[in-house]
Design brief:
The complex is a heterotrimer.
Chain A (H helix, E strand, L loop, with lengths): L1 H13 L12 H13 L16 H15 L4 H12 L14 H24 L1
Helix pairs in contact in A: 2-3
Chain B lengths: L1 H24 L7 E2 L3 E2 L4 E3 L6 E3 L6 E7 L4 H15 L4 E6 L3 H11 L6 E4 L3 H5 L7 E6 L2 E7 L4 H14 L5
Parallel strand pairs in B: 5-6, 6-7
Antiparallel strand pairs in B: 1-9, 2-9, 3-4, 5-8, 8-9
Chain C lengths: L1 H24 L6 H30 L6 H6 L6 H6 L5 H22 L7 H22 L24 H16 L1 H13 L6 H30 L10 H23 L6 H24 L12 H29 L10 H33 L7 H23 L15 H20 L4 H26 L6 H23 L1 E7 L4 E3 L3 E12 L3 E12 L6 E4 L2 E5 L5 E4 L1 E4 L3 E10 L5 E9 L1 H20 L6
Antiparallel strand pairs in C: 1-10, 2-3, 3-4, 4-5, 4-6, 6-7, 8-9, 9-10
Helix pairs in contact in C: 1-2, 1-6, 2-5, 2-6, 5-6, 5-7, 6-8, 6-12, 7-9, 8-9, 8-11, 9-10, 9-18, 10-11, 10-13, 11-12, 13-14, 14-16, 15-16, 16-17, 17-18
Classes of the chains: A mainly alpha, B alpha+beta, C alpha+beta.
Chain lengths: ~120, ~170, ~625
């Protein structure tokens, strides 16, 4: 038992940090990667991000995204890449544009309307 | 004010009901069909017989590009129909997806070869660039532009409803 | 043969429920005998349902494969536990379970509610109508008794191995018990609205039923989340998947309901809100059942179904919801209380939180329906996922925590000063800001939701701590149930924030004999073991892990990859090591060409605390049932 532990200690000294599958130039890039793969939907699965899926196409996309990050593409460009190939639905964070105003601002408008009604009613009585 | 609230409370579920009723009763078209057009990306791949490297320019002006693999069971089901299409004179080129060339060639020898040639996309890089998520998938391409991208098995019903109208409209395969 | 007996019992039950409903419509003649008849006939109806289901369970255990549903979802070689749980693994059987639970809850209610209660007959009548409608749906469109005779297969189908899991087996029963439990409040309140007699104290009646239903629903959702975490291999516990969301919405409405009930049972205000919430909770459950079973939304979870079933469910749910709301609209002017809610009173803060909860429900509903609406209008697809929900729900959660804490020191039906210097509220706010900032600096995470989540969570905990200290020293009464339940909420907020802010993963490639080291641990991949079981082959990786700090803890972890013979399905069994503040989570990926393996190592912080806090909230609610509500 002690011998195995010792051997492993020796091994660990030799093989530190060499074996990350996705290698990046900086820690920020690595963080960008892990954040991005949460936001991109697996094109093949009924539900789930590519981070949570090990379908072949998810694996390929992850590799491609790592490549693109290392080649200097921005987050926006990478999302465009995925969107161009797999459609709008592959992005889990719907963009804020004229067709999604209802989605993003709806809850706040709703809250505002009800609060107004609530306070207005109190005032009028 | 009170009347307004009562109306809203009633109208919301009624609108919801009508909306869902519409959704449930609409005709379900073919969900695997995608008619968004895009240009075939640039590529350089050899074919499964390793005879030469093919690029985008080597593709015919009008073709069907069929994504297949020896490990893909549905492809075996689709194969018969592809052979029929070949008989009728439609040009089909293969995109062999994540497959060993020996396995691919053996499969074609065993079942028959409907393809003019098959690109060997062992890493799936061209497939990824074209939005492929698995096999079988089929593209209808004219002059380097994808007109139809179908995910799933192509059979007579799919051909008649999805591909043929586009072929006719674009006067292809005359 | 026996299957047909069971089938017959269900048909009989349907007839009895129909009869009970018809009798209930005749009670306007105030004939006491008819009222007793409503109750009796209902009881017999429910007994027939129970016996029918028990027989069905027996048939499943006996592996009667002449029944198509049992043949499709069960197998001779399954353990008895899974033979039983296979009953609710798909549409027909789970619908059957839904009906059984509807009958169970309603019969309990029928039994416990005194015959003298003015609303008994109409509410039992409504319940019988609901159960009758679902029974017709079951028997005509989703019959669990469809037969394969004259040829019964020798063995059943091969089961998805993912479904053979204890947590997944009991998650639906708890969930359904919760969903369905709110039917009591729905029926009783609708009866109240139909009858129109404002003096009836319905709050007192529906309170314990709603609390128990809430506890069961919370447990059901927590079980689902826990199962998803350890089984699905991605280390997350909530995905805002449409099917998770349709379970969350009744839960949020239920939470708002039990708080609104608390207010209406003490003062005359918020009555109209409480009734509306009461109708909404069960309506949202119906909506959930419809979404999951109609096939309208694509989701990992949805039972594959056809639009025909969806149409029936839509129609039936529509009838129930719209008629109930119609009565609400009718009585609304009389319901709205003349009492003014005083600013900065307890009622005012609870009202604001009611409004916030309803907004949250609206937001989730919007997120679930938006892809459908978008497709309908623009004919284009769009996905709404965690980024949307997290952005909208987090601020709402923080705001409601603040109002919750305001409510702690406040009083019923009068304003109170809350913000004077040295008040417990000011003190809590200051301390929480300090703690939240401290944590942000210590862990170097300054995201708005990280600080906000920690601030809200500690605000609740600190405020209640001050309350407990103050009242215990002065030997004053305080609401222990509320303190415990809300402390649970505080812990939940903190745990979610820290889990989101701190957790991370690393994807590495490694081969046997290699090791990988990060700042906390050294992972040594010793070797692989090949295992052959009855229904699967597996390759098991043996990791020896050593912590790099002075404690030098050593432990083993064994992530596995399994291939099940019959379906050829490959699953990944993650290895989890639980430590007090984090989980180490290892998943085996694919093997690369060079013989190396892809391994995913995750550190999931505070994840156990998320489920622990859910249990604490349930404990608090359990205590709340014992609390006697002050009579009006």
């Amino acid at each position: 038992m002690k011998k195995i532990v010792l051997l492993n200690l020796l091994f660990s000294i030799c093989f530190i940090q060499g074996n990350e599958v996705y290698k990046f130039h900086s820690l920020e890039d690595e963080k960008r990667f892990y954040d991005l793969i949460q936001e991109i939907r697996c094109p093949k699965c009924t539900s789930g991000s590519i981070a949570s899926s090990n379908a072949p196409v998810s694996e390929d996309l992850k590799n491609k995204i790592a490549e693109l990050i290392n080649e200097g593409y921005s987050d926006k460009e990478i999302k465009e890449y995925a969107k161009a190939r797999f459609g709008n639905e592959v992005l889990y964070n719907p963009e804020v544009n004229s067709s999604t105003y209802l989605l993003w601002y709806g809850p706040f408008i709703f809250l505002f309307m009800i609060l107004t009604g609530f306070f207005f009613r109190r005032k009028s009585q | 004010m009170k009347i307004f609230i009562r109306l809203v409370i009633l109208i919301i579920p009624i609108v919801g009901f009508v909306f869902f009723y519409n959704l449930l009763t609409e005709d379900k078209f073919y969900p695997g069909a995608n008619f968004d057009r895009f240009n075939v990306p640039v590529f350089a791949l050899d074919d499964i017989t390793s005879q030469k490297i093919y690029t985008k320019d080597d593709l015919n002006d009008e073709l069907l590009l069929n994504v297949w693999a020896s490990w893909c069971i549905t492809c075996r089901v689709e194969h018969g129909f592809l052979m029929e299409l070949k008989q009728e004179g439609f040009l089909i080129t293969g995109l062999n997806y994540k497959d060993e060339s020996t396995d691919a060639n053996n499969w074609l020898n065993l079942y028959g070869n409907p393809y003019s040639f098959s690109l060997h996309d062992i890493k799936g890089s061209l497939a990824l660039d074209m939005g492929v998520t698995g096999a079988p998938e089929t593209f209808l391409i004219k002059n380097g532009e994808v007109l139809v991208h179908y995910s799933g098995e192509v059979n007579l019903a799919v051909w008649d409803n999805v591909f043929y109208p586009v072929i006719k409209e674009n006067k292809m395969f005359r | 043969m026996i299957a047909e007996v069971s089938h017959f019992f269900l048909v009989t039950a349907s007839g009895l429920f129909l009869l009970s409903f018809i009798f209930s419509t005749l009670t306007y003649k105030t004939n006491h005998n008819i009222e007793i008849l409503v109750s009796r006939v209902f009881s017999y109806g429910s007994y027939f349902v129970f016996v029918s289901f028990l027989i069905y369970i027996w048939l499943s255990i006996q592996s009667d494969f002449s029944i198509r549903y049992i043949a499709e979802h069960s197998n001779k070689d399954l353990a008895v536990f899974y033979k039983i749980s296979s009953i609710w693994s798909a549409h027909e059987g789970s619908m059957f379970l839904w009906i059984v639970f509807l009958s169970l809850w309603s019969q309990f209610f029928n039994f416990k509610l005194p015959q003298a209660d003015l609303l008994k007959a109409p509410s039992i009548g409504i319940l019988s109508f609901i159960i009758f409608g679902f029974l017709i749906f079951l028997l005509f469109t989703s019959n669990p008794y469809d037969s394969l005779l004259p040829i019964a297969p020798a063995n059943g189908a091969d089961i998805n191995p993912i479904l053979q899991d204890p947590a997944l087996a009991i998650h639906p029963p708890f969930l359904y018990l919760g969903y369905v439990g709110f039917v009591i409040a729905f029926a009783y309140n609708t009866a109240f609205l139909i009858k129109g007699d404002l003096d009836i104290n319905w709050e007192k009646i529906i309170r314990p039923w709603s609390l128990i239903a809430w506890i069961l629903l919370t447990i059901g959702i927590t079980l689902g989340s826990w199962w998803a975490y350890y089984e699905l291999g991605w280390g997350g516990y909530w995905f805002w998947d449409p099917v998770e969301n349709v379970a969350l919405m009744p839960w949020m409405a239920g939470t708002a309901l039990i708080h609104s009930l608390y207010v209406s049972s003490r003062s005359n205000s918020l009555r109209s809100w409480t009734i509306l919430l009461s109708i909404s909770v069960f309506s949202l459950s119906l909506f959930g059942a419809f979404i999951v079973r109609s096939g309208i939304i694509d989701s990992v979870h949805a039972f594959a179904n056809d639009p025909q079933r969806g149409l029936y469910l839509l129609l039936f749910s529509g009838i129930l919801i719209i008629s109930s709301l119609a009565f609400y609209a009718l009585r609304f002017p009389k319901l709205v209380s003349s009492n003014l809610i005083k600013p900065k009173s307890k009622e005012s803060f609870l009202s604001i939180n009611n409004i916030l909860f309803v907004t949250a429900i609206f937001a989730v509903m919007l997120g679930v329906l938006y892809p459908l609406i978008f497709d309908f209008i623009y004919e284009e697809r769009i996905s709404v996922g965690p980024p949307y929900y997290n952005t909208i729900i987090a601020p709402i959660a923080f705001l409601s925590s603040i109002f919750l804490v305001f409510s702690v020191g406040s009083s019923w039906q009068r304003s109170s000063k809350l913000f004077f210097i040295y008040s417990p509220l000011s003190l809590s706010i200051l301390l929480s800001i300090f703690v939240a900032c401290f944590i942000a600096f210590k862990l170097q995470n300054f995201e708005w939701w990280f600080i906000g989540g920690n601030f809200s969570g500690f605000l609740i905990l600190i405020r209640y701590l001050l309350l407990v200290i103050n009242n215990i020293s002065k030997k004053m009464y305080f609401n222990k149930a509320s303190a415990i339940a809300h402390a649970g909420l505080g812990i939940l907020l903190i745990s979610i924030s820290i889990n989101a802010g701190l957790s991370y993963e690393k994807i590495i490639n490694i081969k046997a004999g290699d090791s990988f080291q990060d700042d906390m641990y050294t992972f040594n991949l010793l070797d692989f073991e090949l295992i052959n079981e009855d229904n699967f082959d597996s390759i098991k990786a043996k990791f020896l892990i050593k912590s790099n700090d002075a404690s030098e803890q050593v432990f083993y972890m064994f992530p596995e990859k399994r291939k099940y013979f019959i379906r050829g399905q490959i699953t990944s069994e993650s290895a989890i090591q639980i430590t007090p503040f984090k989980d180490i989570y290892i998943t085996l990926g694919d093997q690369l060409d060079n013989g190396h393996w892809v391994v995913n190592i995750q550190y999931n912080y505070f994840i156990r605390w998320i489920w622990i806090s859910a249990i604490i909230m349930c404990l608090g609610s359990l205590m709340a049932i014992k609390e006697r509500s002050i009579k009006k």
